[in-house]
Batch of 4 targets.
Target 1
Amino acid sequence: MMQREDKDKIRRNRVEFTNDLEVDGVFLDHLHAVGMLNDAMLENITCCKTRREKASKILDIIPRRGPDAFGHLYDALVESDQGFLADLLRPENENKRKREDAIRVQSARSRQRYGRQISQPSDEQQNPVLQPAGSYDMVDEPKNWDDVMNTLGDIQVQSVQDDYIRRLALDNPGHVYTNLTSPRGRAVIINNQSFTGTKLTDRHGSHLDVSKLERLFRVLNYEVVVHTDLKAQEIVSKLQDESYNPLHRTSSSFILTILSHGRKGEVFGTDGDPVEIDKVQKIFSECESLLDKPKLFFIQACQGKGTDLGKIAGAGDTTEIEEKLKQFNLQPDSETADATGLDKTPSMSDILTATATVPDMVSWRNTEAGTWFISALVYSISKNAHRDELQQILTKVNNYVAKAETTKGKWKQISQVTHTLRKSFYFFPRMS
């Protein structure tokens, strides 16, 4: 039987493993190859419908597979590039594991140069050139809105497999941000759902966005913090306190997501008072611990009261995504007063801001499944973070949001991205 101490380590970290363990592929093959899983166990695991169920099943089986099972579990995690989970089991091995990973990757790099094998540079059939990220076909393009919503129920993010992406992460040329610390950084979510004493309506369904974002950011190895129903001054105070968090000194990046009502250049506190988005960004641009580090802002809020009817691009452009969305009750995340905010362009560096809609326009919220923008954001990141740069991912988000349409009036929406990033940003999932 497995040692009690080893069983306790698995038990203490069960939540993290259930949330983050990537079961299929190398991990499962390794455990099967070393005899920790027999054919019947393997079939029992693969029959589970969700990744979470598979992970839970493995955690039930492994402690009963003898004294060597713990070591094989650790090896399987390392082999499948899930070192951040392996370190939970054997934290004393973390530095050694990272050195060995670096040596392994360096050895692979020494045999390759810009995607070609040095030994046979002319044999392109045997040694094809590695293509950079973003050259892939959109193989994960959702066929209908059910694909998006079903995926969000069990968020999975693949580990980096492409040698080109690995080189970007480990060599860190001047055009790519380093984003390899564990955790990557802090991911703060402000969710304003209930509004009292104002003309602003409650944002029903917003808690669903929070759930999606929490799961996604944790899988991406961020420390997640959620604040709910903050007044305008409380938003400013919480973010000012956040800017002094000591974790920023050792982290690689920072994420802030605000879910609220809004108008041009502003988001609202639950008391109906506005907070300028530029003011929020300035708090973190002045944070010395985040100097030269990417700061990502995702804003789910209206930017005005205007609505978009869209234009006909051809009968063949209609997809099942629009048809599915028509079944839901949709509400705008807009304000009741006139939009009086000013056009403002970020002047600070290393900032990316993605907003649910363009200036002067409303954004739409699905009361049964969350907002269009956050649903598309979580889907696109979870499907593409292992291979695509962030701006490529957000272009796909724009595409998904643009396909949506309300039932009454057939209103449309398009999200928007602005940035002052100086380098490319990758999430580098499951790399360390």
Target 2
Amino acid sequence: EHWWALAMVAQVLMVAEKPSIAQSIAKALGNGREEKRRAKIDCYEFDGTFRGQPARFRVTAVIGHVFSIDFESQFNNWGAVDPVDLFNAPVRRCEANPKARVVEHLKSEARGCEYLVLWLDCDREGENICFEVIDVTKKVLAKRGGRQIYRAKFSAVGRADILRAMSALDEPNQNEALSVDARQELDLRVGCAFTRFQTRYFQDKYGNLDSSLISYGPCQIPTLGFVVDRHDKIQHFTPETFWTVVPTVAPQNGGAALPLLWARGRVFDREIATMFLETVAPHKAAVVKSVVKKTDKRTRPQGLNTVEMLKIASKRLGMGPHHAMQVAERLYIQGFLSYPRTESTAYPQGFDVGNALRQHARNPYWGDYVSGLLREGTVATAVHAALPTARGRAR
């Protein structure tokens, strides 16, 4: 009877992109009943139901990409291989982090499981890792009829988001995964070929240049061009002294002083500026000759995609892009922020803006403002962003 009961329980393996995400998934779905088991990468186990039947869940993770690509060993000799030949050289797939033994870990955890649920990040890279995990595990999954592999689509790791994703499991997108394969191969071929070419080209050309390795990357070179262009402009900038006239007026019945803007703006000749100042200075009163009123309409702000988030973090908080992404990733893992790597500026269909705002209603800094929006019933149009916070707790 015990054997028969075990046979009726489905074995389900869930794989996340990071151990911290796996822990969040286990806590949300295990309702505090999850058990942590030490393995090469921590694994969490708990009982529940899957597709209407009793199930035993295993939740674990990878550490980013499972595989990477490289050239065959005979093409790694810089002296014997023409860089042009790298564009047609065969490539091979190898384990991205052999010391972590992720492939061995996935096979071990998948053995005996009937279902695989992929909880990788919902971007192209995550979709690619989905198929890396599938390639490793599909040979050891217990064979059974029907569908065995599922994809969870989520943008935040709060409990409600995880439960919602679990109730609407989808399929992994192979086209997105293949696009990453193509990008990886292009990066490898272009990067290696041009790195070898320009390293050879610049060797011994400039005495003060360290030409032992001059790397090339499809992203880093255009970025370097922007940096050098900006640096050149700063270096060649010549500051000029200018003068402006700023008269200040105050109402006769009291009130705050008001500085007036000079229509001319500024002048670069001190004598001319002095002449204007001497013309204005003797006058002790000003007359309002006309009043113009106009309505200024401002559209609601667009949602934050990754680029806009980094711009605002730099401008308002003085944070560099690397630091900003590190903080955003931590907030995402802790459930305070939705997935920070996004090109979208809109919420997904069916996103409950009112519920997101209600979680901020008690915040000590902006809770009163949020409560006002909720009272006025304007929550449907109050915000429209792709990077909402998932929990309203002050940090």
Target 3
Amino acid sequence: MVSEDIEAQTMISSVEDTPKAVKEWLAATFTKQIFGRRQAIEPPKFRSIVQAVRASMYVDKITRKTSHAVPVDISPSVLMLQEKLNCWDIDVFRYDSLTQNKPFRGLFAEVLNRYGLVKRFKINQYNLENYCALVEQGYNVHGNPYHNAVHGADVLITTHNLITLTGFASWLTDIEILSLLFSAIIHDVEHTGTTNNFHICTGSPLTIMYNDRSVLENHHISTAYRYLEQADCNPFDKLSKDDFREMRGIVVEAVLGTDMSAHFTQIKNMQNALFSPSSVNRNTAMTLVLHCADISHPTNRGSCTRHGLIISWRSSSNRATKRQHWASPTLHFATDRRPLFQKAKLVLLTSSSYRA
């Protein structure tokens, strides 16, 4: 018993910043030194009581500090992600403006953190920021009015919401989620602002390189992986060889699936698969998710959609001008009718995807 009293007195003395009156009260109440004999009902262990007092004092100290602390300065773009990232109608144009036309650097890291992927795959934050900077530059290298960094950010956010709000993410593995999100951010990098048919009919260098097959989509994938080879620009350098190989396979298939020539084939395959859910191919499902996100902009509400359609029309007009410049019979299309056709096409394709 004497040893317990000695220990009690020692612990009382060790409590930092404890007023003398409190120490005397503790000693008088909970040690044998004052009472001379133990109570009939055994009191709580002295160690737990001292710890409780210590915790109470710590909480009080933290409360006093925070009540006088200067509020953390959160940038408007970060605040917008915190409040709106999981919303279908997030205004990606406003977000791009808040980030001064650098939407990927904060956005991609935030999305990855939502799934715990940065910690899971030991993603290098410094390399991630460098890589996002390269992707931003790549999207804007051709001055593309539609397939630029804003579009890439929009597709990334939509992909995130499609797999999160629908519960699809719970069906995927971590490496599949990482692959799908990476596919979203790079799916149109260095887009030339023209179609695959334009490249094929004009015999462009990209057509020669990729043998007329999904010319732009192959170019986007190749460009994205070339960026990873630059110094301090590979955020996935800690991935195992198996994970990296699996990730690349998913990325290649998903981005190639954004080729509009495969749109109705994808819809038909998925509609058939719905009658037999157990037979659904995982890669096919992920490919369709990315494709839906890629053409989803007309489904957004309000000014964001109107802004997107106006930009899309400008992009169409630019393509029509290039066709006239090349003066190829196979590329001829009336410039003044192109915007109307483009709007109808967007609505038709988007509605058919979301009905499926």
Target 4
Amino acid sequence: MSSHVEKDDQQNALAKHHRGMAPPKYDSSNRYKIQKYLVASEAITWNQVKSEDVTITTHSTLSKLHHLPALVERWNAPVSVSVLTDDVPTLLSTIANLRRCFPPIKQYASFHVVMPANTRDNTGESDETELKVPCSMVLDLTENLADLNMTKLDAYYPSSLLLNVAVVESTTDYIFALDIDMVPSGELEQSFKAFMTRREEDQYMNNPTVFIVPDFDLHDDYVSMAPKYKSELLGLLKENYVKPSVSFIDYNQWREFKSTSSLYLEVAFEMKGQNPWQAFFIASRNIPKFDEAIHSVNNSDINSVRSCHICELHVAGYQFGVMDSAFVLHKGFKKTNNLERSMELNQMHLKKYGVKLRELYPQSPRSCT
């Protein structure tokens, strides 16, 4: 459960949102400013979010926001989005477009903005002419927006900071940490809530656990027809329109696992975290945060950030329960050269991070290799 202090902070931030925008706060490095609840969802505004709901927490740049409708429409539950930009007026106009043209975004998505520290305070401005864009053009327009040039800033993409902001500003007990260009399986939020209700006496309730949701890459030709159910996914897998992502998950075991019920979600098996790679999971919002000293090359390559986080969870004593029929899909197949570079960076970061984790958890018998 969330602490009383965190809940009070969120309620204060929301109250200030209704009265007028609260001033932004600086991150621990003083390189970025954070504006919480730049735009709050209707569900948040009208106090319709329940603690037992599950919030997708994700990160984005301006141009990546064109992925948001597919994510929110499939999830149909709270979504917390952190956006990196120095152009807040354009972000506000883009959010207004998305909310106008895609009602689930207006209902469920809350937006927070992370800005370079020297960004002018213009959170109350927007270009009203953008609101006249036909809905048929909104996604193309959004995809072609100019993103913040991190090279000119001599900075890395602050993925850990963005992920943490999205998690901290969620208001539910559980979060689902995803990238914005992903699509979850159908009815997953409802299925997970039912799973938690049934599993109150389960070993995964009595021990700290993150619930791993296997991730796959989906061929571009099928992005608009993303499968909802495991049976559909397995059919596309046989035809090579879906590929398992690189992960520490045993995909063969997941594929062959025979569920005891077609109606209920359950843990198929447990994975060990000593050889981590990025993974996507549902977990308590109070799990250890992403280490903000670890950065990404860009917003499409945060494997090392996620791998180091999985490593910390392992060292901290968490279990990893792989869900039997849940999955998430990346849009498009990964390029081989990008994957090889990601694996090199992953090993480099894990080696350095292992030293830090021995200092943070000196009594832990666990380590990552």
